[in-house]
From TrEMBL:
The keyword Transcription applies. Residues 2-70 form the HTH gntR-type domain. It comes from Ralstonia mannitolilytica. Keywords: DNA-binding, Transcription, Transcription regulation. This is L-lactate utilization operon repressor.
């Protein structure tokens, strides 16, 4: 079931693709648009953010929302938008590079667990999501494609059977969704390597945990490159250099002398 912002984004995408809102045109003011769609302005803003991430619109302060249409690559996705940080509820604000790094740590692990614990119903669900993704890409429905992609990744966390990983995936759901939309913004529906998902599903169907993890890792690295992110490049430090440790404390040398038994009488009484 679609959320309200997702349904609003779908409605606006249809109007953009159909030409009701042609490329270069400006959408109606947000208050007017929200009223015409019967939704709150908060839901509309969330929907517009999704469309901006996909490269369909530009949200320009003091100028409104401008339609970019079905243009991708350098024209469709500005460098500023592609590298915008994303706030997560539990882990603070992460840049796209930091989010990819985090996903590279988490997702191959939960994919391996899913492969080891897979059951027939779970495998059918994964295959169904693959079909939904393929159908959405065939009709250039980027929103539905991105949603099917997200549900595929989140289902693998669920199929891991690990409550901690499932909870972490839930905390990261919106951030992962944002990350998954970035390649679509640069390349549209033409450059989504569905064969990478196929490799993951095939390894899982074979019960090969190691191959499943490696297929997921290869998929994430490929998605990063399609988003203009090089995970192997050194990342500038986000924190100032630590202060040098203080010099060790210098203690005065300890001196002592042996005392006779008679001298020590009464000391420990």
């Amino acid at each position: 079931m679609h959320s309200i912002p997702s349904s609003v984004a779908q409605a606006l995408q249809r109007r953009i693709v159909s030409g009701d809102y042609p490329s270069g045109s400006r959408l109606p003011p947000q208050r007017e648009l929200a009223e015409s769609l019967g939704v709150s302005r908060a839901s509309l803003r969330e929907a517009l953010t999704v469309l901006e991430t996909l490269g369909l619109v530009d949200i320009l302060p003091s100028h409104g929302v401008v339609v970019r249409g079905q243009k991708f690559g350098a024209e469709g996705a500005s460098a500023e938008r592609m590298h915008r940080s994303f706030a997560t509820p539990a882990l603070g604000t992460l840049s796209p590079r930091q989010l990819i790094d985090l996903r590279l740590v988490l997702e191959p692990g939960w994919t391996a667990l899913a492969a080891a614990r897979m059951h027939a119903a779970g495998l059918r669900h994964l295959q169904w999501l693959q079909q939904q993704l393929a159908h959405a890409l065939a009709r250039n429905d980027l929103l539905s494609a991105a949603e099917a992609d997200l549900h595929f990744h989140l289902l693998l966390a669920q199929l891991s059977g690990n409550p901690g990983l499932m909870a972490m995936a839930g905390q990261l759901e919106h951030a992962i969704g944002h990350s998954l939309r970035l390649p679509f913004a640069r390349n549209g529906a033409d450059d989504h390597p569905a064969h990478e998902h196929d490799a993951i599903v095939q390894a899982i169907a074979a019960g090969d945990a190691a191959a499943s993890a490696e297929a997921m890792r290869a998929h994430l690295l490929s998605a990063a490159r399609r988003s203009g992110i090089d995970p192997s490049a050194p990342q500038p430090s986000q924190h100032p250099a630590p202060e040098p440790l203080p010099e060790p404390l210098r203690y005065a040398p300890i001196s002592f002398r042996l005392v006779s038994i008679s001298e020590s009488e009464g000391v420990f009484e």
